[in-house]
Backbone:
């Protein structure tokens, strides 16, 4: 597909049929030759040919270990890697020196948690990263385990206290105790931009404003927002932002930590080793400037190049249009799935401040069993607790079924989901 | 449609009307098992009676298996079938049944189950074609193995 076929960026609805042609996998069949309806992009997205080509071209034309060696291939590989960093930074309104590549978003969050851990034994120059007894870290009840467990662990290692925003019955953050929860003892507030279960888009501004008042750092888990809506780090005004490549049409094995430059410059490293050093003696070492300080070892250059290609692809479509397209799908799914007798949507039932992850429970059918019937009909969804076990416990449900959308999904995909749910109800005899 | 091969009527019957469900006393030991990928859980108790009125060993009789659980039809039905199969048997017989069931579950749909040993549990043969569901079928069985091991450790030959 060319830019012309998309129409001008940020105008008009998406030509989904043209987009789908870029994703080879979407034309395959599953289980007894059924057309595949992929509704699990919240777990991982499919990749357009252009991303695969970019990775292949790197390997075929420029492959070398980046930031090492002086031969031509090493130069080309390093240029490609650093150009990818610029593209990805531009995609979120940042500058390249603030973008650190990690293995995935989980590692990006751990990088911050461990930098804070490592700061604990450093001098007072690193006071703002230090946490200990009497200090507090605030998360929310709707966090993915990736943005909960690292903070639990940091608190356990340092003696700090973990606190959290509760979630309302409707699946929104309860900010009524904001001023109490985020207080002078708070060192960091870590929360998700968009819930991977509820679809809820959280209000960033009031939380950031309160954190600023008390001098706390703010980390935003943007795994479900950067792929699906325009995100500008300057506008969000947070300190750290983490997201993964594979959920935004990019390759597996690459994630991004964005942080304000002055924070990266002050932070101690997490993983140490080659290429993150200044000088190395037998007795001690010094660190490279960021972002290299946080990228020990030979980095994932082919994946960075692939992720940059994914950013270009999304930019050409226009993130506003991607968001609008998913909004239509979400509103349609909430209406149609919610209207099936015996089905209850888990999360906001209106498509307001809400992204395209639609979780639900079906009376009398365990999500595992539901997922099995859906899979038999070619409808690929996620079942379980979606790495948000405490949230499910809070809502009093052991597991949910989740459909999640992306730019290549259609209204017909939602129809297929609804009809497969009804098939499951007939199969298990919970509906005449 | 392959679904019918997986959700045999026996399985759905056990799911809708589970046998021996509920936690009972007396019991020698209890085990709580969780499937971390989906959150399904089972708490299972065993009551054993020594064969020779001495210490508990492999020849002890499984007097009762009681359980509470939360999960999909496969995990709940397989635990229900387990209670039918193992209550009244010796621990050694139970372990052999467990082995046969585990082997069937790992057969990727190629197993030829021995109906004399597995009885209703042969209905789970279809589940072995779906790797993601094998853990569901084994959840209660692993809890049983664990609870028996705890019982023997606690009250076995000293």
Residues:
């Amino acid at each position: 597909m060319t830019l012309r076929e998309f129409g001008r960026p940020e105008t008009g609805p998406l030509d989904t049929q043209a987009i789908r042609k870029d994703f080879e996998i979407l034309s395959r069949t599953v289980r007894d030759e059924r057309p595949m309806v992929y509704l699990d992009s919240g777990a991982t997205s499919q990749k357009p040919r252009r991303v695969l080509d970019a990775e292949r071209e790197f390997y075929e034309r420029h492959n070398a270990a980046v930031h090492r060696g002086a031969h031509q291939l090493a130069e080309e590989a390093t240029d490609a890697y650093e150009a990818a960093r610029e593209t990805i930074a531009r995609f979120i309104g940042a500058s390249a020196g603030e973008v650190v590549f990690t293995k995935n978003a989980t590692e990006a969050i751990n990088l911050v948690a461990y930098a804070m851990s490592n700061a604990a034994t450093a001098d007072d120059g690193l006071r703002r990263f230090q946490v200990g007894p009497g200090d507090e870290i605030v998360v929310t009840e709707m966090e993915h385990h990736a943005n909960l467990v690292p903070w639990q662990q940091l608190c356990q290692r340092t003696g700090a206290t973990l606190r959290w925003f509760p979630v309302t019955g409707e699946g929104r953050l309860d900010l009524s105790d904001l001023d109490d929860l985020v207080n002078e003892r708070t060192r960091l507030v870590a929360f998700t931009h968009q819930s991977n279960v509820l679809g809820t888009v959280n209000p960033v501004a009031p939380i950031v404003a309160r954190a600023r008042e008390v001098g706390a750092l703010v980390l935003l888990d943007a795994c479900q927002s950067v792929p699906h809506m325009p995100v500008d780090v300057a506008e969000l005004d947070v300190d750290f932002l983490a997201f993964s490549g594979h959920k935004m049409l990019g390759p597996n094995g690459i994630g991004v930590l964005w942080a304000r430059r002055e924070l990266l410059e002050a932070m101690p490293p997490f993983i140490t080793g080659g290429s993150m050093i200044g000088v190395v003696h037998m007795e001690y070492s010094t660190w490279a400037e960021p972002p290299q300080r946080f990228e020990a070892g030979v980095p994932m250059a082919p994946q960075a190049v692939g992720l940059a290609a994914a950013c270009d692809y999304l930019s050409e479509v226009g993130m506003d249009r991607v968001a609008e397209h998913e909004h239509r799908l979400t509103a349609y799914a909430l209406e149609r799935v919610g209207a099936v007798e015996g089905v209850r949507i888990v999360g906001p039932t209106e498509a307001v401040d809400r992204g395209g992850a639609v979780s639900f429970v079906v009376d009398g059918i365990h999500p595992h069993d539901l997922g099995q019937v859906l899979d038999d009909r070619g409808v690929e969804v996620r079942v379980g607790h979606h790495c948000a076990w405490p949230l499910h416990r809070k809502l009093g449900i052991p597991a949910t079924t989740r459909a999640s959308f992306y730019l290549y999904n259609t209204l017909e995909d939602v129809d297929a989901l609804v009809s497969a749910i009804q098939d499951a109800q007939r199969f298990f005899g919970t509906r005449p | 449609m392959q679904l019918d091969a997986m959700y045999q009527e026996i399985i759905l019957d056990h799911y809708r009307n589970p046998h021996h469900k509920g936690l009972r006393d007396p019991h020698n030991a209890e085990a709580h098992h969780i499937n971390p990928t989906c959150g399904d859980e089972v708490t299972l108790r065993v009551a054993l009676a020594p064969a020779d009125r001495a210490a508990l060993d492999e020849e002890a009789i499984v007097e009762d298996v009681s359980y509470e659980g939360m999960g999909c039809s496969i995990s709940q039905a397989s635990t229900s079938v387990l209670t039918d199969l193992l209550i009244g048997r010796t621990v050694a017989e139970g372990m052999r049944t467990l082995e046969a069931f585990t082997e069937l579950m790992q057969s990727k749909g190629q197993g030829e189950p021995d109906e004399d040993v597995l009885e209703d549990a042969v209905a789970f043969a279809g589940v072995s074609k779906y790797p993601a569901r094998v853990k569901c079928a084994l959840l209660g069985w692993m809890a049983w193995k664990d609870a028996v091991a705890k019982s023997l450790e606690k009250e076995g030959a000293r």
Observations:
- Confidence is low (pLDDT under 50) at residues 1-10 of chain A.
- The radius of gyration of chain A is 22 Å.
- The interface with chain B takes residues 31-32, 366-369, 372-373, 376, 383-385, 389, 392, 398-399, 427-428 of chain A (CB under 8 Å).
- Chain A has 15 helices and 17 strands.
